[in-house]
Amino acid sequence: MNTAPPLVSVMIPYYNCKAYIAETIESVEQQTHSNIEIIIIDDGSTQEHRDYLQNYLAGKPHIRYAFQENQGVSSARNYAARLAGGKYFLFLDADDVILPEYTAKAVAILESNPDCKLVYPQAEFFGVQSGLWEIPPYEDFRSLLMGNKFPSISFHRATDYRVLDGFDESLDTHEDWDYWIRILKNGGTVYQIPEILFKYRRRSSQDSLIDKLSANPELNRLNWQKVCNKHQDLFLQYNLGYVDLVHLICNMKQHDTEQTQKIQTLENEVSDHVELTLFANSMEQKNMEQTKKIQELEDKLGKLKQAYDNARYRESMRALHREQQSDSTPSPAVSINGHAMLRYIYKSPSYQIIRAVKKLNWKIKKRPKKPLFFPTTEIQSYQEAVRILNSTAWSLLSPIHFLYKLIKKEK
User: β-strands 88-91, 63-68: how paired?
Assistant: First the structure.
């Protein structure tokens, strides 16, 4: 029973790439999968680059080498595939690098999943550009028709290659997209290994395929159209024909217009809200300032009232003193009953109401509570009692006091 791991053919098309080919070959030789053949096709390099590669390969008899006149990458790949004997194929550009575990993990997936057509990893850039190359996971065949989803280093089966007769050599670019469409058009699954196992080089010379397509959009558009024309039936089957795309574009434009209008409406609402917020903040600030001024004025008014009451009290005391001087015999009621009269008023319901209102006012204005005033002399008590009885508050509450006296049966 043969237990040897399946043979993998790694094929490298080479064209004037002596600065990077050694690093690429070494990345293949460092694979943990043990059964690999390496095939390099020189696609008409200049003598300098050809001599460098041949000298480098002189000490590596396990690598197969062949030369052809320059015919393009599709022709070089097809030439290599005709020489290959592996069960699984991997086409690797001469300046890129695969990481050691890639081959082993891809082969394990293909071996355990007979319906799997393609296996590819996550990737990153290196060279003059670094960072993750965001290759999306495969969704479905329709998404593939809308644009290439796979890197050229995707593992696939040699039998699929031979059934399809390889790459279309009439395409200058997008030959790999055309190749993946033909592999998957009759079904099959695709697996993306969720780790970085491939490094795509960005050169300072900007002569990679991505750089060339960016610099020449007409070439990109022309070969894209060639692929669409070639698979016209598939594009129509998946509603990606000319009319479908025109309708799609019109709908997208309409959607963009509606979204733009919504955004403008929201921006206007936000602007209005900001203006209202600023106005409200301004009004709140003004209200705070006015409240502070009112509080200051109320404090001043309270001080003036207190000063006025004090002045009235002092004046009444002076008047009383003058009366005492003019009449040495004071009123018996005043001299004898002043304290009793004042205590009687303090205990009355009318004054209790007056006192409760004063306490509430002090609490609202956060002022300290004043104790009841108890003069030291009968005359001062009499004077304070007269002041209370002559006050507006007492006059307003006199009916309550009248009822109080009736209830107490007092005269």
Answer: unpaired
**pTM for this structure?**
0.61
* CATH number for 199: 3.90.550.10
Residue 10 near residue 39 (C-beta atoms within 8 A): yes
How far apart, in whole angstroms, are the C-alpha atoms of residue 183 and residue 161?
A: 8
Task: Provide the residue type at 282 as one letter.
Answer: S
Integer Cα distance of 15 and 21 in angstroms: 10
List Cβ neighbours of 385 (8 Å cut-off, separation of 6 or more): 338, 341, 342, 345
Whether 317 is in a domain gets the answer no
Which of 19-33, 241-255, 269-283 has the highest average model confidence (pLDDT)? 19-33
Quote the mean pLDDT of the chain. Answer: 85
Q: What per-residue confidence (pLDDT) applies to 382? A: 87
By three-state DSSP, how is residue 103 classified? helix
> Which stretches within 327-377 are classed as H helix?
332-347, 349-364
pLDDT above 90 for 403: no
Domain boundary among 178, 213, 234: 234
The residues pairing with 118 across neighbouring beta strands, listed in sequence order, are: 190
